[in-house]
Protein backbone atom coordinates (compact mmCIF):
# COMPACT_ATOMS: atom_id res chain seq x y z
CA UNK A 1 0.00 0.00 0.00
CA UNK A 2 1.58 3.33 -1.07
CA UNK A 3 2.46 5.78 1.68
CA UNK A 4 1.32 9.41 1.83
CA UNK A 5 4.66 10.83 0.57
CA UNK A 6 4.49 8.48 -2.43
CA UNK A 7 0.92 9.62 -3.24
CA UNK A 8 1.95 13.27 -3.01
CA UNK A 9 4.95 12.58 -5.22
CA UNK A 10 2.68 11.29 -7.98
CA UNK A 11 0.01 13.99 -7.52
CA UNK A 12 2.15 17.15 -7.36
CA UNK A 13 3.66 16.91 -10.88
CA UNK A 14 0.22 16.51 -12.41
CA UNK A 15 -1.09 19.45 -10.38
CA UNK A 16 1.85 21.64 -11.45
CA UNK A 17 1.23 20.81 -15.15
CA UNK A 18 -2.45 21.71 -14.88
CA UNK A 19 -1.72 24.96 -13.06
CA UNK A 20 0.87 25.88 -15.66
CA UNK A 21 -1.67 25.32 -18.45
CA UNK A 22 -4.19 27.69 -16.87
CA UNK A 23 -4.45 31.16 -18.36
CA UNK A 24 -4.66 33.49 -15.40
CA UNK A 25 -5.62 37.08 -16.09
CA UNK A 26 -7.22 39.81 -14.01
CA UNK A 27 -10.96 40.25 -14.35
CA UNK A 28 -12.97 43.23 -13.27
CA UNK A 29 -16.28 42.35 -11.68
CA UNK A 30 -18.74 44.92 -10.39
CA UNK A 31 -20.60 44.10 -7.21
CA UNK A 32 -23.72 46.08 -6.51
CA UNK A 33 -25.97 46.23 -3.50
CA UNK A 34 -29.69 45.84 -3.05
CA UNK A 35 -31.28 49.12 -2.01
CA UNK A 36 -34.81 47.83 -1.65
CA UNK A 37 -36.50 44.48 -2.29
CA UNK A 38 -40.04 43.20 -2.01
CA UNK A 39 -43.09 41.96 -3.95
CA UNK A 40 -40.98 40.37 -6.67
CA UNK A 41 -38.84 43.41 -7.57
CA UNK A 42 -35.58 44.88 -6.35
CA UNK A 43 -33.81 48.22 -6.67
CA UNK A 44 -30.04 47.89 -7.06
CA UNK A 45 -27.19 50.41 -6.95
CA UNK A 46 -23.52 50.11 -7.83
CA UNK A 47 -23.83 48.49 -11.28
CA UNK A 48 -23.22 51.34 -13.74
CA UNK A 49 -22.30 48.99 -16.62
CA UNK A 50 -25.41 46.81 -16.40
CA UNK A 51 -27.40 46.51 -19.63
CA UNK A 52 -31.13 46.49 -20.18
CA UNK A 53 -32.58 42.94 -20.05
CA UNK A 54 -29.33 41.57 -18.59
CA UNK A 55 -29.55 38.78 -16.04
CA UNK A 56 -28.36 39.68 -12.55
CA UNK A 57 -27.33 37.18 -9.89
CA UNK A 58 -28.37 38.00 -6.34
CA UNK A 59 -26.80 36.79 -3.09
CA UNK A 60 -29.26 33.90 -2.57
CA UNK A 61 -28.72 32.58 -6.11
CA UNK A 62 -31.94 34.01 -7.48
CA UNK A 63 -31.67 35.60 -10.87
CA UNK A 64 -33.19 38.94 -11.74
CA UNK A 65 -33.80 40.75 -15.01
CA UNK A 66 -32.79 44.40 -15.35
CA UNK A 67 -35.80 46.19 -16.82
CA UNK A 68 -35.26 49.86 -15.94
CA UNK A 69 -32.01 51.82 -15.85
CA UNK A 70 -31.44 55.12 -14.07
CA UNK A 71 -28.21 57.10 -13.58
CA UNK A 72 -27.59 55.87 -10.05
CA UNK A 73 -29.66 52.70 -9.76
CA UNK A 74 -31.58 50.09 -11.72
CA UNK A 75 -34.80 48.15 -11.25
CA UNK A 76 -34.94 44.42 -11.73
CA UNK A 77 -37.69 41.82 -11.56
CA UNK A 78 -36.94 38.66 -9.63
CA UNK A 79 -37.33 35.34 -11.41
CA UNK A 80 -37.16 33.28 -8.22
CA UNK A 81 -37.56 33.45 -4.47
CA UNK A 82 -36.59 36.58 -2.56
CA UNK A 83 -36.04 34.68 0.68
CA UNK A 84 -32.82 35.78 2.39
CA UNK A 85 -32.54 39.02 0.43
CA UNK A 86 -32.56 42.42 2.03
CA UNK A 87 -31.06 45.86 1.82
CA UNK A 88 -27.29 45.50 1.37
CA UNK A 89 -27.36 42.06 -0.26
CA UNK A 90 -24.75 41.61 -2.97
CA UNK A 91 -25.72 41.64 -6.66
CA UNK A 92 -23.49 41.04 -9.68
CA UNK A 93 -23.93 41.17 -13.42
CA UNK A 94 -23.87 37.88 -15.32
CA UNK A 95 -23.14 39.35 -18.73
CA UNK A 96 -25.90 37.15 -20.15
CA UNK A 97 -29.40 37.73 -21.41
CA UNK A 98 -32.38 35.60 -20.40
CA UNK A 99 -32.35 32.35 -22.36
CA UNK A 100 -34.39 29.16 -22.45
CA UNK A 101 -33.30 25.69 -23.66
CA UNK A 102 -34.89 24.64 -26.94
CA UNK A 103 -34.93 21.38 -28.86
CA UNK A 104 -36.71 18.09 -29.40
CA UNK A 105 -36.00 17.06 -25.81
CA UNK A 106 -38.66 19.50 -24.58
CA UNK A 107 -41.50 17.64 -26.30
CA UNK A 108 -43.78 16.02 -23.77
CA UNK A 109 -42.36 18.04 -20.88
CA UNK A 110 -43.73 20.63 -18.45
CA UNK A 111 -41.22 23.42 -17.74
CA UNK A 112 -41.06 26.82 -16.08
CA UNK A 113 -40.25 30.17 -17.67
CA UNK A 114 -36.51 29.43 -17.75
CA UNK A 115 -36.82 25.83 -18.97
CA UNK A 116 -36.43 24.03 -15.62
CA UNK A 117 -38.60 20.87 -15.44
CA UNK A 118 -41.77 20.96 -13.33
CA UNK A 119 -42.97 17.42 -14.11
CA UNK A 120 -40.51 15.56 -11.89
CA UNK A 121 -38.51 14.33 -14.87
CA UNK A 122 -34.80 14.61 -15.60
CA UNK A 123 -33.11 17.95 -16.12
CA UNK A 124 -33.45 19.20 -19.67
CA UNK A 125 -30.51 19.42 -22.02
CA UNK A 126 -31.73 21.34 -25.02
CA UNK A 127 -29.88 21.39 -28.31
CA UNK A 128 -29.04 25.02 -27.58
CA UNK A 129 -30.23 28.01 -25.60
CA UNK A 130 -32.30 30.67 -27.30
CA UNK A 131 -32.88 34.21 -26.01
CA UNK A 132 -36.42 34.80 -24.80
CA UNK A 133 -36.48 38.16 -26.60
CA UNK A 134 -36.02 38.05 -30.36
CA UNK A 135 -36.94 40.49 -33.12
CA UNK A 136 -39.93 39.56 -35.25
CA UNK A 137 -39.27 38.31 -38.79
CA UNK A 138 -38.99 41.11 -41.31
CA UNK A 139 -41.42 41.60 -44.17
CA UNK A 140 -38.91 40.08 -46.59
CA UNK A 141 -38.64 36.90 -44.51
CA UNK A 142 -42.41 36.34 -44.40
CA UNK A 143 -44.67 34.57 -46.85
CA UNK A 144 -48.42 34.54 -47.44
CA UNK A 145 -50.56 32.47 -45.08
CA UNK A 146 -51.78 29.74 -47.43
CA UNK A 147 -52.28 26.53 -45.44
CA UNK A 148 -55.16 25.85 -43.05
CA UNK A 149 -54.82 25.13 -39.34
CA UNK A 150 -57.83 22.98 -38.53
CA UNK A 151 -59.15 23.23 -34.99
CA UNK A 152 -61.55 20.29 -35.35
CA UNK A 153 -64.39 22.56 -34.17
CA UNK A 154 -66.99 22.93 -36.90
CA UNK A 155 -68.21 26.41 -36.01
CA UNK A 156 -64.62 27.73 -36.23
CA UNK A 157 -63.34 25.78 -39.23
CA UNK A 158 -66.48 26.57 -41.23
CA UNK A 159 -67.11 30.24 -40.35
CA UNK A 160 -63.86 31.59 -38.77
CA UNK A 161 -61.11 29.49 -40.40
CA UNK A 162 -57.50 29.79 -39.28
CA UNK A 163 -54.29 29.64 -41.30
CA UNK A 164 -50.80 28.51 -40.34
CA UNK A 165 -48.88 31.66 -39.44
CA UNK A 166 -51.94 33.62 -38.33
CA UNK A 167 -52.58 35.36 -34.99
CA UNK A 168 -56.11 34.65 -33.80
CA UNK A 169 -57.39 35.96 -30.46
CA UNK A 170 -59.66 33.87 -28.24
CA UNK A 171 -61.66 36.32 -26.16
CA UNK A 172 -64.60 36.10 -23.79
CA UNK A 173 -65.71 36.32 -20.18
CA UNK A 174 -64.43 34.05 -17.45
CA UNK A 175 -65.57 30.41 -17.64
CA UNK A 176 -66.95 30.52 -21.18
CA UNK A 177 -64.74 27.80 -22.68
CA UNK A 178 -61.70 29.67 -24.02
CA UNK A 179 -59.17 27.17 -22.70
CA UNK A 180 -61.39 24.28 -23.86
CA UNK A 181 -61.21 25.54 -27.47
CA UNK A 182 -57.44 25.94 -27.22
CA UNK A 183 -57.01 22.42 -25.83
CA UNK A 184 -59.26 20.92 -28.54
CA UNK A 185 -57.17 22.72 -31.15
CA UNK A 186 -54.02 21.13 -29.71
CA UNK A 187 -55.70 17.71 -29.66
CA UNK A 188 -56.62 18.09 -33.33
CA UNK A 189 -52.94 18.44 -34.28
CA UNK A 190 -52.11 14.83 -33.35
CA UNK A 191 -51.77 13.79 -36.99
CA UNK A 192 -51.06 17.16 -38.61
CA UNK A 193 -47.39 17.44 -37.65
CA UNK A 194 -47.94 20.77 -35.88
CA UNK A 195 -45.87 21.19 -32.70
CA UNK A 196 -47.89 22.84 -29.92
CA UNK A 197 -46.61 25.04 -27.09
CA UNK A 198 -49.06 25.92 -24.32
CA UNK A 199 -48.10 28.78 -21.97
CA UNK A 200 -50.09 29.04 -18.71
CA UNK A 201 -49.76 32.46 -17.05
CA UNK A 202 -51.18 33.08 -13.59
CA UNK A 203 -53.43 29.99 -13.77
CA UNK A 204 -54.37 27.88 -10.78
CA UNK A 205 -52.40 24.66 -10.38
CA UNK A 206 -55.60 22.62 -10.69
CA UNK A 207 -56.38 24.25 -14.05
CA UNK A 208 -52.90 23.59 -15.41
CA UNK A 209 -52.94 20.00 -14.15
CA UNK A 210 -56.29 19.48 -15.89
CA UNK A 211 -54.88 20.70 -19.21
CA UNK A 212 -51.75 18.54 -18.91
CA UNK A 213 -53.81 15.48 -17.99
CA UNK A 214 -56.17 16.05 -20.94
CA UNK A 215 -53.21 16.27 -23.34
CA UNK A 216 -51.66 13.14 -21.86
CA UNK A 217 -54.92 11.15 -21.86
CA UNK A 218 -55.65 11.92 -25.51
CA UNK A 219 -52.11 11.30 -26.74
CA UNK A 220 -51.21 14.92 -27.55
CA UNK A 221 -48.56 15.62 -24.92
CA UNK A 222 -45.88 13.89 -26.99
CA UNK A 223 -46.01 16.66 -29.61
CA UNK A 224 -46.51 19.48 -27.08
CA UNK A 225 -44.53 21.58 -24.63
CA UNK A 226 -46.22 23.11 -21.59
CA UNK A 227 -44.65 26.26 -20.11
CA UNK A 228 -46.07 27.09 -16.69
CA UNK A 229 -45.83 30.24 -14.60
CA UNK A 230 -48.79 29.66 -12.29
CA UNK A 231 -50.48 31.91 -9.80
CA UNK A 232 -47.92 30.92 -7.15
CA UNK A 233 -44.91 31.71 -9.37
CA UNK A 234 -43.01 34.99 -8.92
CA UNK A 235 -44.47 37.88 -10.94
CA UNK A 236 -41.26 38.09 -12.95
CA UNK A 237 -41.61 34.48 -14.08
CA UNK A 238 -45.22 35.13 -15.10
CA UNK A 239 -44.10 38.12 -17.15
CA UNK A 240 -41.32 36.14 -18.85
CA UNK A 241 -43.29 32.95 -19.59
CA UNK A 242 -44.96 33.88 -22.93
CA UNK A 243 -41.66 35.10 -24.38
CA UNK A 244 -39.94 31.87 -23.34
CA UNK A 245 -42.77 29.80 -24.85
CA UNK A 246 -42.51 31.79 -28.07
CA UNK A 247 -38.76 31.10 -28.30
CA UNK A 248 -39.41 27.36 -27.85
CA UNK A 249 -42.02 27.44 -30.63
CA UNK A 250 -39.71 29.48 -32.89
CA UNK A 251 -37.11 26.73 -32.71
CA UNK A 252 -39.48 24.38 -34.55
CA UNK A 253 -40.63 27.09 -36.95
CA UNK A 254 -37.04 27.92 -37.91
CA UNK A 255 -36.45 24.24 -38.74
CA UNK A 256 -39.19 24.38 -41.37
CA UNK A 257 -41.90 22.85 -39.18
CA UNK A 258 -45.30 24.25 -38.23
CA UNK A 259 -45.89 25.31 -34.62
CA UNK A 260 -48.87 26.54 -32.61
CA UNK A 261 -48.45 28.82 -29.59
CA UNK A 262 -51.33 29.13 -27.10
CA UNK A 263 -50.95 31.87 -24.47
CA UNK A 264 -53.40 31.51 -21.58
CA UNK A 265 -53.84 34.35 -20.94
CA UNK A 266 -52.57 37.82 -21.88
CA UNK A 267 -55.03 39.63 -19.61
CA UNK A 268 -53.25 38.20 -16.56
CA UNK A 269 -49.93 38.93 -18.23
CA UNK A 270 -50.90 42.60 -18.60
CA UNK A 271 -51.99 42.74 -14.96
CA UNK A 272 -48.64 41.29 -13.83
CA UNK A 273 -46.75 43.80 -15.95
CA UNK A 274 -48.80 46.63 -14.46
CA UNK A 275 -47.97 45.37 -10.96
CA UNK A 276 -44.25 45.20 -11.69
CA UNK A 277 -44.20 48.61 -13.38
CA UNK A 278 -45.97 50.33 -10.50
CA UNK A 279 -43.63 48.73 -7.97
CA UNK A 280 -40.65 49.99 -10.00
CA UNK A 281 -42.15 53.52 -10.01
CA UNK A 282 -42.74 53.68 -13.75
CA UNK A 283 -45.23 56.39 -14.76
CA UNK A 284 -48.75 54.94 -15.01
CA UNK A 285 -51.04 55.57 -17.95
CA UNK A 286 -54.60 54.58 -18.79
CA UNK A 287 -56.10 52.27 -16.13
CA UNK A 288 -52.69 52.46 -14.38
CA UNK A 289 -51.07 50.36 -17.12
CA UNK A 290 -47.61 51.57 -18.20
CA UNK A 291 -47.33 53.42 -21.48
CA UNK A 292 -45.64 50.54 -23.29
CA UNK A 293 -48.31 47.90 -22.53
CA UNK A 294 -49.28 47.82 -26.22
CA UNK A 295 -45.65 47.38 -27.24
CA UNK A 296 -44.92 44.39 -24.99
CA UNK A 297 -47.79 42.41 -26.53
CA UNK A 298 -47.16 43.59 -30.08
CA UNK A 299 -43.51 42.58 -30.00
CA UNK A 300 -44.55 39.15 -28.74
CA UNK A 301 -47.36 38.43 -31.20
CA UNK A 302 -45.51 39.88 -34.20
CA UNK A 303 -43.10 36.96 -33.88
CA UNK A 304 -45.85 34.68 -35.21
CA UNK A 305 -45.53 34.35 -38.98
CA UNK A 306 -45.16 32.02 -41.89
CA UNK A 307 -41.62 32.18 -43.25
CA UNK A 308 -40.69 32.13 -46.91
CA UNK A 309 -38.97 29.21 -48.60
CA UNK A 310 -35.58 30.92 -48.29
CA UNK A 311 -35.99 30.91 -44.49
CA UNK A 312 -37.16 27.30 -44.25
CA UNK A 313 -40.88 27.70 -44.93
CA UNK A 314 -41.96 27.02 -41.35
CA UNK A 315 -44.83 28.75 -39.57
CA UNK A 316 -45.75 29.87 -36.09
CA UNK A 317 -49.45 30.36 -35.37
CA UNK A 318 -50.34 32.35 -32.25
CA UNK A 319 -53.58 31.81 -30.34
CA UNK A 320 -53.52 34.24 -27.43
CA UNK A 321 -56.40 34.24 -24.93
CA UNK A 322 -57.89 37.35 -23.34
CA UNK A 323 -60.58 37.71 -20.69
CA UNK A 324 -63.33 40.33 -20.80
CA UNK A 325 -65.47 41.71 -18.02
CA UNK A 326 -69.24 41.50 -18.66
CA UNK A 327 -68.59 41.06 -22.37
CA UNK A 328 -66.89 44.46 -22.73
CA UNK A 329 -64.86 44.15 -25.93
CA UNK A 330 -64.08 47.88 -25.81
CA UNK A 331 -61.92 47.63 -22.68
CA UNK A 332 -58.27 48.71 -22.85
CA UNK A 333 -56.43 45.39 -23.08
CA UNK A 334 -59.03 43.63 -25.33
CA UNK A 335 -58.98 46.49 -27.85
CA UNK A 336 -55.18 46.46 -27.86
CA UNK A 337 -55.08 42.73 -28.59
CA UNK A 338 -57.85 42.89 -31.20
CA UNK A 339 -55.86 45.56 -33.07
CA UNK A 340 -52.66 43.48 -32.92
CA UNK A 341 -54.11 40.14 -34.05
CA UNK A 342 -55.56 38.99 -37.40
CA UNK A 343 -59.01 38.29 -36.01
CA UNK A 344 -60.83 37.15 -32.90
CA UNK A 345 -63.10 34.34 -31.77
CA UNK A 346 -65.59 35.80 -29.30
CA UNK A 347 -67.24 33.51 -26.75
CA UNK A 348 -70.51 34.90 -25.43
CA UNK A 349 -71.71 34.09 -21.88
CA UNK A 350 -75.37 34.09 -22.95
CA UNK A 351 -74.74 31.31 -25.48
CA UNK A 352 -72.70 29.36 -22.94
CA UNK A 353 -75.44 29.42 -20.33
CA UNK A 354 -78.01 28.41 -22.95
CA UNK A 355 -76.00 25.25 -23.65
CA UNK A 356 -74.52 26.35 -26.98
CA UNK A 357 -70.99 24.97 -26.57
CA UNK A 358 -68.62 26.10 -27.90
CA UNK A 359 -70.28 29.45 -27.22
CA UNK A 360 -68.90 31.20 -30.31
CA UNK A 361 -70.72 34.36 -31.36
CA UNK A 362 -70.37 34.08 -35.13
CA UNK A 363 -71.45 37.67 -35.73
CA UNK A 364 -68.73 39.21 -33.52
CA UNK A 365 -65.99 36.80 -34.56
CA UNK A 366 -63.79 37.27 -37.59
CA UNK A 367 -60.74 35.77 -39.28
CA UNK A 368 -58.98 38.28 -41.51
CA UNK A 369 -56.51 35.81 -43.01
CA UNK A 370 -57.66 32.22 -42.62
CA UNK A 371 -60.50 32.40 -45.15
CA UNK A 372 -57.89 32.29 -47.91
CA UNK A 373 -56.58 28.99 -46.57
CA UNK A 374 -59.89 27.14 -46.22
CA UNK A 375 -60.24 23.81 -48.00
CA UNK A 376 -62.21 24.22 -51.26
CA UNK A 377 -64.82 21.68 -50.17
CA UNK A 378 -65.37 23.54 -46.91
CA UNK A 379 -65.53 26.91 -48.68
CA UNK A 380 -68.32 25.81 -51.02
CA UNK A 381 -70.37 24.22 -48.26
CA UNK A 382 -69.95 27.01 -45.70
CA UNK A 383 -70.07 30.13 -47.87
CA UNK A 384 -73.63 31.01 -46.82
CA UNK A 385 -73.44 29.56 -43.31
CA UNK A 386 -72.85 32.84 -41.45
CA UNK A 387 -75.72 34.55 -43.28
CA UNK A 388 -78.11 31.65 -42.66
CA UNK A 389 -77.24 31.54 -38.99
CA UNK A 390 -77.64 35.30 -38.52
CA UNK A 391 -81.01 35.30 -40.29
CA UNK A 392 -82.16 32.36 -38.18
CA UNK A 393 -81.30 34.16 -34.94
CA UNK A 394 -83.32 37.22 -36.01
CA UNK A 395 -86.30 35.11 -37.07
CA UNK A 396 -86.20 33.09 -33.86
CA UNK A 397 -86.35 36.24 -31.73
CA UNK A 398 -89.27 37.48 -33.83
CA UNK A 399 -91.17 34.20 -33.47
CA UNK A 400 -90.82 34.25 -29.68
CA UNK A 401 -93.35 37.05 -29.48
CA UNK A 402 -96.02 34.63 -30.67
CA UNK A 403 -96.36 36.18 -34.09
CA UNK A 404 -97.82 34.06 -36.89
CA UNK A 405 -95.18 33.09 -39.44
CA UNK A 406 -95.64 31.78 -42.96
CA UNK A 407 -94.48 28.37 -44.11
CA UNK A 408 -91.25 29.67 -45.61
CA UNK A 409 -90.26 31.47 -42.41
CA UNK A 410 -91.18 28.41 -40.36
CA UNK A 411 -88.93 26.28 -42.59
CA UNK A 412 -86.03 28.71 -42.17
CA UNK A 413 -86.42 28.61 -38.39
CA UNK A 414 -86.51 24.81 -38.30
CA UNK A 415 -83.46 24.63 -40.59
CA UNK A 416 -81.64 27.09 -38.33
CA UNK A 417 -82.37 25.00 -35.25
CA UNK A 418 -80.70 22.02 -36.89
CA UNK A 419 -77.79 24.21 -37.88
CA UNK A 420 -77.39 25.32 -34.28
CA UNK A 421 -77.60 21.73 -33.06
CA UNK A 422 -74.94 20.74 -35.59
CA UNK A 423 -72.56 23.42 -34.29
CA UNK A 424 -72.83 22.10 -30.71
CA UNK A 425 -69.80 19.91 -30.11
CA UNK A 426 -68.54 18.12 -26.98
CA UNK A 427 -65.10 18.88 -25.59
CA UNK A 428 -62.13 16.62 -26.37
CA UNK A 429 -63.81 15.39 -29.56
CA UNK A 430 -62.46 17.38 -32.53
CA UNK A 431 -63.72 16.43 -35.99
CA UNK A 432 -61.67 15.60 -39.06
CA UNK A 433 -62.04 17.66 -42.21
CA UNK A 434 -63.93 14.85 -43.95
CA UNK A 435 -66.36 14.56 -41.05
CA UNK A 436 -67.06 18.28 -41.07
CA UNK A 437 -67.57 18.24 -44.85
CA UNK A 438 -70.06 15.36 -44.54
CA UNK A 439 -72.09 17.14 -41.85
CA UNK A 440 -72.15 20.44 -43.75
CA UNK A 441 -73.22 18.59 -46.90
CA UNK A 442 -76.11 17.04 -44.99
CA UNK A 443 -77.07 20.50 -43.76
CA UNK A 444 -76.84 22.13 -47.18
CA UNK A 445 -78.89 19.41 -48.89
CA UNK A 446 -81.57 19.62 -46.17
CA UNK A 447 -80.96 16.03 -45.05
CA UNK A 448 -81.07 17.18 -41.43
CA UNK A 449 -84.39 18.93 -41.88
CA UNK A 450 -86.15 15.56 -41.81
CA UNK A 451 -84.68 14.75 -38.39
CA UNK A 452 -85.94 15.85 -34.99
CA UNK A 453 -83.52 18.38 -33.51
CA UNK A 454 -82.65 16.06 -30.62
CA UNK A 455 -81.42 13.39 -33.08
CA UNK A 456 -78.85 15.56 -34.86
CA UNK A 457 -76.17 14.39 -32.43
CA UNK A 458 -77.01 10.74 -33.11
CA UNK A 459 -76.81 11.44 -36.86
CA UNK A 460 -73.35 12.96 -36.38
CA UNK A 461 -72.19 9.82 -34.59
CA UNK A 462 -73.54 7.56 -37.35
CA UNK A 463 -71.99 9.68 -40.09
CA UNK A 464 -68.56 9.56 -38.45
CA UNK A 465 -68.83 5.80 -38.02
CA UNK A 466 -69.75 5.35 -41.69
CA UNK A 467 -66.79 7.48 -42.82
CA UNK A 468 -64.34 5.50 -40.72
CA UNK A 469 -65.58 2.18 -42.16
CA UNK A 470 -66.28 3.32 -45.73
CA UNK A 471 -64.12 1.20 -48.10
CA UNK A 472 -64.03 3.34 -51.28
CA UNK A 473 -61.69 5.97 -49.80
CA UNK A 474 -63.96 9.04 -49.79
CA UNK A 475 -62.58 10.08 -46.43
CA UNK A 476 -58.96 9.79 -47.53
CA UNK A 477 -59.48 11.76 -50.73
CA UNK A 478 -61.15 14.64 -48.88
CA UNK A 479 -58.40 14.70 -46.24
CA UNK A 480 -55.60 14.68 -48.81
CA UNK A 481 -56.96 17.12 -51.39
CA UNK A 482 -59.52 19.18 -49.51
CA UNK A 483 -61.79 18.72 -52.53
CA UNK A 484 -65.18 17.05 -52.86
CA UNK A 485 -65.52 15.65 -56.38
CA UNK A 486 -68.92 15.10 -57.99
CA UNK A 487 -68.58 11.33 -57.60
CA UNK A 488 -67.62 11.55 -53.94
CA UNK A 489 -70.37 14.08 -53.32
CA UNK A 490 -73.01 11.78 -54.82
CA UNK A 491 -71.74 8.76 -52.86
CA UNK A 492 -71.53 10.72 -49.62
CA UNK A 493 -74.95 12.29 -50.05
CA UNK A 494 -76.56 8.90 -50.73
CA UNK A 495 -75.00 7.46 -47.61
CA UNK A 496 -76.10 10.43 -45.48
CA UNK A 497 -79.69 10.11 -46.66
CA UNK A 498 -79.63 6.39 -45.90
CA UNK A 499 -78.34 7.12 -42.39
CA UNK A 500 -80.98 9.77 -41.79
CA UNK A 501 -83.87 7.50 -42.77
CA UNK A 502 -84.05 5.35 -39.60
CA UNK A 503 -83.42 8.39 -37.37
CA UNK A 504 -86.23 10.34 -39.02
CA UNK A 505 -88.75 7.56 -38.38
CA UNK A 506 -90.83 8.04 -35.20
CA UNK A 507 -89.83 5.84 -32.27
CA UNK A 508 -92.27 3.63 -30.42
CA UNK A 509 -92.63 6.21 -27.64
CA UNK A 510 -93.51 9.08 -30.03
Question: Can you put this structure into words, describing what you see?
Answer:
The structure is a single chain. The chain has 510 residues and is of the alpha/beta class. It is 38% helix and 17% strand. The protein is built from 16 helices and 16 strands. The protein has helices at residues 4-21, 154-159, 178-187, 205-217, 235-254, 266-279, 293-301, 332-340, 349-353, 376-382, 385-399, 407-423, 433-444, 456-469, 474-481, 486-504, and strands at 31-38, 41-45, 54-58, 63-69, 74-78, 90-97, 99-102, 110-111, 128-131, 169-172, 195-201, 224-229, 258-264, 315-323, 343-347, 366-367. The longest helix has 20 residues, at 235-254. 43% of the residues are buried. The mean pLDDT is 90.
Strand order of the largest sheet: 8-12-11-13-14-10-15-16
Q: Count of helical segments?
A: 16
The residue-averaged pLDDT reads: 90
Helicity, as a percent range: 25-40%
Distance between the termini: 99 Å
Q: What fraction of the residues are assigned to beta strands by DSSP?
A: 15-25%
Task: Return Rg in Å.
Answer: 28 Å
The largest sheet is: 8 strands, mixed
Silhouette = elongated
Number of strands: 16
The low-pLDDT segments are none
Structural class: alpha/beta
Keywords:
single chain; 510 residues; alpha/beta; six-stranded antiparallel β-barrel; 16 strands
Compact summary:
The protein is an alpha/beta fold.
Secondary structure elements and pairings:
Layout: H1 4-21, E1 31-38, E2 41-45, E3 54-58, E4 63-69, E5 74-78, E6 90-97, E7 99-102, E8 110-111, E9 128-131, H2 154-159, E10 169-172, H3 178-187, E11 195-201, H4 205-217, E12 224-229, H5 235-254, E13 258-264, H6 266-279, H7 293-301, E14 315-323, H8 332-340, E15 343-347, H9 349-353, E16 366-367, H10 376-382, H11 385-399, H12 407-423, H13 433-444, H14 456-469, H15 474-481, H16 486-504
Parallel strand pairs: 8-12, 10-14, 10-15, 11-12, 11-13, 13-14
Antiparallel strand pairs: 1-2, 1-6, 2-5, 3-4, 3-6, 4-5, 7-9, 15-16
Helix pairs in contact: 5-6, 7-8, 10-13, 11-12, 13-14, 13-15, 14-16
